[in-house]
Amino acid sequence: xxxxxxxxxxxxxxxxxxxxxxxxxxxxxxxxxxxxxxxxxxxxxxxxxxxxxxxxxxxxxxxxxxxxxxxxxxxxxxxxxxxxxxxxxxxxxxxxxxxxxxxxxxxxxxxxxxxxxxxxxxxxxxxxx
Length: 129
What we know:
Layout: H1 5-27, H2 33-89, E1 95-98, E2 101-104, H3 107-128
Antiparallel strand pairs: 1-2
């Protein structure tokens, strides 16, 4: 067996492959034209139904988000902002976080401002008497 035998064997294998390929295609049970049309219509109808269902669900979830979750979020934000305003109004000062850096507010400064306000109030009261 030399190199000359391999090309002949290769050609025989290719011929054998194509003969087998044609034989297998003849065994295939091909659908009729009406079966192809019916199956195509069924697939298109199912795709249309699934598309409509996804569209309706998308609208429903968007409405739920707009009228439910967003309103709930805004109510919570309003509640938090009112609480923050009440805390600031009561001169309660804590730690604030600004751009990732912790900044401590000086409570003595707030106390000094309160004492200055009290002094101004006393001066005004004294001048009115």
